[in-house]
Design brief:
By secondary structure, this protein is mainly beta. The protein has 3 helices and 18 strands. The longest helix is centred in the N-terminal third of the chain and has 7 residues.
């Protein structure tokens, strides 16, 4: 907080206090000072500047000082969000996710999934955990030597899979961050140059997610559509 230089003005000791009061009116407060309202420049003050009058008594001298300004404290909600190093921010979609089984479309109840669908760069991402791969019929294999291998199958969308869900008393976090995988990824035995992908694979809560772009969906035999605030997954 910056303070302007105090202004010290000596008044003539022989000048009656009444003359000061007429040129520089205003009662003093309990601290012996007040705010200048009129003829401030004459006394070496600025308009609205607070100053003291010799302890609040008779004439003599007064000292112009600055009162700290009440500058608003930035709200924590207005502070810039700090994204953890090496991560990107992802968000839950505001629309519902429907999986089209043979018997009809079913709401995945995304907000209750332990590994929910999320959005990154306006693209929806699907988790590649066991439950979702079984549902979307994506063959998923992992090895420390090779990395993650994903393959298309000719099986219809799996029905009756029980998804892992968060506890009924819990909610999804308000802030979600994913990071880039550090392992190789292959789709139908073709290596993915993930670092240079416009929509890369991501990892959230130790589960790999794939971007449901037309390009990748076609490799898994899937199609998607957004209609009436619902996101549909077909095969």
């Amino acid at each position: 907080m910056k303070f302007r230089k105090a202004v010290i003005t000596l008044a003539l000791l022989t000048l009656p206090f009444s003359s000061i009061a007429s040129a520089h009116p205003g009662r003093t407060d309990s601290n012996g000072g007040h705010t200048c309202r009129t003829n401030c420049a004459k006394w070496g003050l600025k308009d609205g500047e607070y100053h003291y009058h010799n302890g609040g008594g008779g004439g003599g001298f007064f000292i112009g000082v600055d009162i700290p300004k009440n500058e608003p404290t930035p709200s924590t909600s207005d502070a810039e969000e700090i994204i953890p190093y090496g991560h990107v921010k992802v968000t839950l979609p505001t629309f519902k996710v429907y999986i089209n089984y043979k018997t009809g479309a079913s709401d995945a109840q995304n907000s209750t999934l332990e590994y929910p669908f999320f959005l990154y760069n306006d693209i929806i991402y699907a988790p590649l955990n066991y439950d979702m791969c079984s549902t979307l019929t994506i063959e998923n294999t992992w090895s420390n030597e090779v990395g993650l291998s994903l393959r298309k199958t000719d099986t219809e969308i799996g029905e009756g899979v029980h998804f892992q869900r968060i506890e009924s008393s819990s909610t999804q976090p308000t802030k979600m961050y994913a990071h880039f995988p550090t392992f190789n990824i292959f789709v139908n035995d073709v290596w993915v140059d993930n670092e240079n992908e416009e929509y890369p694979f991501l990892v959230y809560n130790d589960v790999t997610y794939y971007p449901m772009t037309w390009h990748l969906n076609s490799k898994f035999g899937l199609t998607t559509a957004l209609k009436d605030n619902r996101f549909y997954i077909f095969k």
